Amino acid sequence: MGYRTFETERLFLRPTGKGDADFILELMNSPKWLAYIGDRQVYTAKQAEAYIDEKMTSQLERLGFGNYTVIRKEDGAKLGSCGLYDREGLDGVDLGFAFLPEYEGQGYGYEAALRLMGAGWEDFGLDQIRAITNTDNQASQKLLQKLGFRQEGRMTLPGETTEVILFTAKKWIPNR
């Protein structure tokens, strides 16, 4: 496979694969995913495998980056996902994240997203990263602002009916 994995003080971020199907099934059917990201009609492990293959692995193969499963080093627990996405209807690469309810509010989203932003700048040659969030999702909006994103406006993605807020972060070089 040979795709990049990333690491922070507490976390491993590795490309999501078919072995993560049960985890992705649980995450995609968690209350906040359904409320803020939407029902992707993934209700079985087999459907989760197909989704990983069609949506996640295909982008990874095409661009070298995509969706990463966020794993806690301490115990190997799968906490959530964080990724850089080539999203239809959005100009540029999109940062996205979602965590299981029991792992929210512990800084894991910030840690994972910050590491992937650094990878976007340093490893993948991006000069800006976009992010979108549901207008009601205050937690995601606060996290994006903490990460240095600035609100640009609102938009509706193709095939969707819900308006989202568009954010942009410009390239920066982290301290070493």
Structure description:
The protein has 176 residues and is an alpha+beta fold. It has one domain: 3-Layer(aba) Sandwich (Aminopeptidase), CATH 3.40.630. Helix content is 33%, strand content 27%. The protein has five helices and eight strands. Strands 1-2-3-4-5 form a five-stranded antiparallel β-sheet, with helices on both faces. Strands 6-8-7 form a three-stranded antiparallel β-sheet. It is globular and about 35 Å long.
Helix content: 25-40%
The CATH superfamily bears the name Gcn5-related N-acetyltransferase (GNAT)
Q: Specify the CATH architecture.
A: 3-Layer(aba) Sandwich
Structural class: alpha+beta
Pattern of helices and strands: EEHHHEEEHEHEE
First CA to last CA: what distance? 29 Å
> How much β-strand is present in the residues?
25-35%
Give short descriptive properties of this protein.
27% strand, 176 residues, five-stranded antiparallel sheet, three-stranded antiparallel sheet, 8 strands, alpha+beta
List the helices and strands and how they pair.
Layout lengths: L5 E2 L3 E5 L5 H8 L2 H7 L7 H19 L3 E6 L5 E8 L8 E6 L8 H15 L5 E7 L3 H9 L3 E6 L8 E7 L6
Antiparallel strand pairs: 1-2, 2-3, 3-4, 4-5, 6-8, 7-8
What's the short version?
Helix content is 33%, strand content 27%. By secondary structure, it is of the alpha+beta class. A hairpin with an 8-residue loop joins strand 4 and strand 5.
